[in-house]
Amino acid sequence: MQLSPAQAMELWHRVTVEALNQELPDLSARQIALLLHIYLAPPPHTVRGLSLDLNMSKPAVTRALDRLSALGYLKRQTDMADRRSILVKRTVAGAVFLRDFADLIKGQARRV
Amino acid sequence: MQLSPAQAMELWHRVTVEALNQELPDLSARQIALLLHIYLAPPPHTVRGLSLDLNMSKPAVTRALDRLSALGYLKRQTDMADRRSILVKRTVAGAVFLRDFADLIKGQARRV
DNA sequence: AGTCTTTGTTACGGTTACGTAATGACTTGG
DNA sequence: CCAAGTCATTACGTAACCGTAACAAAGACT
To answer: Which of A33, A83, B9, B112 has the most crowded CB, counting CB atoms within 10 A?
Structure first.
């Protein structure tokens, strides 16, 4: 996939502005990264693993999970093999949200 | 520019995660949108205009400008034709930051 | 058993952001 | 020249977020 710097900026511009105008639940950069990571990177996903992968502190991961699970975009499940760990699981609502977001990007990409 | 939903998500995922790992100054979605808008949409840019274009309250625009100008990414200039208004201007530092960001996107796009 | 380690969460203090409402500076129009 | 309107900012209360440090729960190891 080829993309000039100018195209890259125009795409990002269009998407961020459009996201603001649609008044999506406004997630921080970390929350978006976390959500995308859970849906796109291979499981399992634990707090510790996410903390390392995304370069954020464990409490920050916990709080992001609180927020995203309150929105219904994912859920926690304690790992039965090691009950200290929790496994972060996808949900239908999260998949729908990301699908819509992907469509927004796709739509704006077509205009670039 | 064509982009499947899956490609769109993968690109967004790669870029957001990479941005976290590089520990760029973490800007909110609004701040990024504002910065991109100022550099990509045709001037002039006033607080009121930005507030309308980006669907955010005027105080939110003022605060975002505070933050972004503290980082040196843009500057205010009072409009001499109507001294109530301010014109938001680009800076070299802002252009450099966005150029780097565009390169980051471009680099990740190549891997998608 | 008991200690040490690991995992996720909570507590705390501080920072940053928001929106509504009030304010100050300036322009406009009667 | 003064009242009304417009522009940006500040004030204020609230909510969200951060990182460090303390914590409870579970596992590992002797």
So the answer is: A33
